[in-house]
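Structure (tokenized):
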């Protein structure tokens, strides 16, 4: 730096002293000191470049290990056996489904609550109400069973050797959906010691509905009429055991 002209207003300064240069030096030193001070106050002292490099290398290696083994953090590896993963509520709602036997038993037993007061929880009836356990009107054909339940029964009737002469009003609407009918039939045919085992499809229940629409009378069935319906079997394909169906619609889920 070249020597500055001496300010005539500051005559006490020596000529050999470069005031501007000296002053600049003082400023640099003090501002450096104050930067240092500030850094220390923050607790953010400069870190050695090697610490930074080593840390970066570790991070890259660790990251690539985690990403390359994509089941390292898979949910299933970390969940205890017997625990069920919460349903994913973000996608479309899951289809409620189950094995047809279980779905039918659950639905059928719900419908049976309407019958239980008379035919008893064990299906064995009593002196006033005929049994559904071992009843030929229950086990032989779903057509006879549904004819009785949908239209009611009147007059003397003998079921499983138990005779009554009474009346049952209609217990089920004739337009009840096919799934509920199939479930009730399956439940009654496979409870109380009954063991028919056939798994009717909802579609097969349409055959009952068609026959019911052709009935000459709208009123109660009688033993004689039910004895005719006992001989009529439902046609078409049954469900295979274990078939998974939609609980709401009865459709088969592949
Ligand atoms: C209010 C009492 C009562 C209710 C509720 C009732 N039943 Fe009956 N059920 C009877 C009586 C009484 C008879 C016999 C009618 C006769 O004497 O002609 C009968 C007869 C039957 C028969 C034919 C005879 C036999 O024992 O197999 C079937 C099948 C039947 N009921 C099924 C059902 C089903 C299924 C339900 C429920 C959806 C039901 N009943 C609800 C009183 C009832």
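Design, position by position:
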């Amino acid at each position: 730096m070249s020597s500055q002209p001496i300010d005539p207003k500051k005559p006490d300064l020596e000529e050999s002293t470069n005031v501007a240069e000296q002053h600049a030096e003082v400023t640099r030193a003090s501002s450096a000191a104050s930067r240092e001070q500030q850094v220390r106050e923050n607790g953010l002292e400069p870190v050695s470049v090697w610490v930074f490099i080593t840390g970066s290398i570790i991070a890259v290696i660790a990251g690539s290990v985690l990403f390359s083994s994509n089941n390292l953090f898979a949910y299933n590896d970390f969940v205890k056996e017997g625990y069920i993963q919460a349903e994913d509520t973000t996608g479309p709602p899951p289809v409620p489904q189950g094995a047809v036997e279980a779905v039918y038993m659950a639905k059928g037993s719900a419908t049976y609550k309407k019958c239980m007061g008379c035919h008893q929880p064990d299906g064995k009836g009593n002196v006033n109400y005929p049994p559904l356990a071992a009843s030929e009107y229950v086990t032989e054909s779903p057509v006879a069973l549904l004819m009785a339940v949908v239209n009611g029964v009147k007059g003397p009737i003998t079921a499983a050797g138990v005779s009554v002469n009474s009346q049952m009003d209609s217990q089920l609407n004739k337009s009840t959906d096919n799934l509920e009918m199939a479930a009730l039939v399956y439940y009654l045919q496979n409870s109380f010691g009954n063991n028919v085992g056939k798994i009717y499809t909802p579609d097969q229940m349409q055959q009952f509905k068609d026959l019911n629409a052709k009935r000459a009378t709208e009123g109660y069935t009688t033993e004689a009429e039910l004895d005719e319906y006992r001989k009529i079997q439902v046609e078409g394909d049954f469900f295979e055991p274990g078939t998974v169906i939609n609980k709401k619609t009865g459709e088969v889920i592949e």
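Reviewer-requested clarification: The radius of gyration is 44 Å. The chain has a mean pLDDT of 88.
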